[in-house]
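pinned: reference chain
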Amino acid sequence: MTKATCAAAAAGFALACCVGFSAYAAPWDGAYVGLQVGDAFGDADQPAATTIGGPFTSAQADADLSSLYGGAHAGFDFPILDQFVAGILADYNFVSLKGDDGGTGPDGSDAGVTADVNRLKIDDIITARARLGWRFTPGSMLYATGGGAWMSGGATAPAEAISVDFSGYTYGAGLEFAIGEDATFGIEWRRIDVDRERVSFPVTGYDIGIKPDLDTVQIHLNYYLNSLFE
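pinned: its structure tokens
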């Protein structure tokens, strides 16, 4: 995680605590829209098959991945009893995650076809998920979230570039605080775990199996639309 994201999250948390425990009481009820910024970091496991369609017998070094991201989201919340909130939301994030295997071979050497440098780039992340929150004060909520996750990008060998899409699931937790009658500020951590995707490079003559695993830390703002329809 970058120092900039850590500093922003710490500053945001301090501000949110000061405001969130004040007289404001967030609605957490109805439709909302918002923006988010954060840091995505992790790695991608990339074993190789030395022939097209063959078994993944060659271990390569993981590709380290790290990038800031930003995007927008929309959701809907509804209260349950007095202190609980259930909701759904979807978000879209622009990201520039890049990494490679360093050209490592099955035994860490530069021998064989697996000595080629295989690069991975992820351009966007989409999630659709549910969340369940507990309002431990009128203006403060702790919540858990989970659902589906999708990523798209590309993989390269020395002479080829192939588009690749990933799908899987995400889960995490966050804190939200009221910063006005219709607005909340939040801090959230999530894990993204996707299925391995097989990518074939017919010109080069081998396959790799790519499985990125990511953590994200973000801050976000929500604006509830109830007042627009009163």
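why pinned: The two ends are 42 Å apart (CA to CA). The beta strands are 30-45, 48-49, 63-80, 84-100, 119-137, 140-157, 160-178, 183-194, 197-201, 206-224.
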